[in-house]
Amino acid sequence: MRNVPIDEVGGLDRDVLAISTDYPPGTLLHWHRHRRAQFLYGATGPLRVETAEGTWTVPPHRAVLIPAGTAHQVTMIDVSTRSLYLEPAAVRWFPRYCQVVDVSPLLRELIAEAVELPGRHPRRGRDATLMSLILHEISRLAPLPLDLPLPRDERLRALCQSFVDDPRIHEPPARWAAALHVSERTLYRLFRAETGMSFTRWRQRACVLHAVALLATGRPVAGVAASLGYGSPAAFTTMFQRLLGAPPSEYRSRA
């Protein structure tokens, strides 16, 4: 199915519904939730998913698993998506929270075939076997470290969201403390309590995940490093590889 709203077909009696959707650049899908679990795959362009718990950056050729009933919003950056909407009873192994996962070449081809099928596809034979194999492949995927926790404290969350949109690696904590009318020591305690991370580590992670989205659009590594305030591409590459276990060139080469 192509460019069909899930609300129009979500009631079909099938464990897997596959929909291909094209979005204009910069599309924001405001807060919503689905009765079904969702496998949201970015076939082209990066996207970002936000829930109450945090944000998940999804480069091209990766996907995010969104549990059934989870309120979320999605920012599209010139994206064509392939979504699989899964009956909760058919995926009892689905994670409780969002996860970004790699998508194997096999699963990619299976999804390409699935979106060509009608919603009411045959229950037996080749189409049913294809959907069953898709579920097996998804259940084997390992999560990638592309998540960033967000605080529930409204004032701190607003600062975090503003930073996520335009991060700088040398952002001074004193500015945040002043905005919250607290001491830097109190800011550090609040950050740890709300996100489970130190301010410094969270700031580094936010910068690296922002870089992932920029690299996915084809931006050169040196330009991305400079835009984040790193003194050199080497310093940026070291931090990127330490946090994600892969060099920036890997994320750019797959754009």
Please give a structural write-up.
Helices cover 40% and strands 22% of the residues. The chain has 255 residues and is an alpha+beta fold. It folds into two domains: 6-144, Regulatory protein AraC (Jelly Rolls); 150-253, Arc Repressor Mutant, subunit A (Orthogonal Bundle). The strands form two sheets. The protein has a six-stranded antiparallel sheet with strand order 1-8-3-6-9-10, with helices on one face. Strands 2-7-4-5-11 form a five-stranded antiparallel sheet, with helices on one face. A hairpin with a 3-residue loop joins strand 4 and strand 5. Helix 8 crosses helix 9. The radius of gyration is 19 Å and the shape is globular.
Topology:
Blueprint: H1 6-9, E1 16-22, E2 28-32, E3 37-44, E4 47-50, E5 54-58, E6 62-66, E7 72-76, E8 80-86, E9 99-102, H2 105-114, H3 126-139, E10 143-144, E11 147-149, H4 154-165, H5 173-180, H6 184-195, H7 199-216, H8 221-227, H9 233-244, H10 248-253
Helix pairs in contact: 2-3, 8-9
Name the descriptors:
globular; Arc Repressor Mutant, subunit A; Jelly Rolls; 40% helix; 10 helices; 11 strands; 255 residues
CATH class membership of the largest domain: Mainly Beta
H/E element string? HEEEEEEEEEHHEEHHHHHHH
Structural class: alpha+beta
Let me know the largest β-sheet. Answer: 6 strands, antiparallel
Residue runs with pLDDT of under 50 for 5 or more positions:
none
Give the overall pLDDT as a whole number: 94
Number of domains: 2
Shape: globular
Rg computed from alpha carbons, rounded to a whole number of angstroms:
19 Å
Q: At CATH's second level, what is the architecture of the largest domain?
A: Sandwich
Termini separation comes to 25 Å
Output the strand order for the largest sheet.
1-8-3-6-9-10
The quaternary state of the protein chains shown equals: single chain
Strand content: 15-25%
Fourth-tier CATH superfamily name of the largest domain:
Regulatory protein AraC
**CATH-assigned fold name of the largest domain:** Jelly Rolls
Number of helices: 10
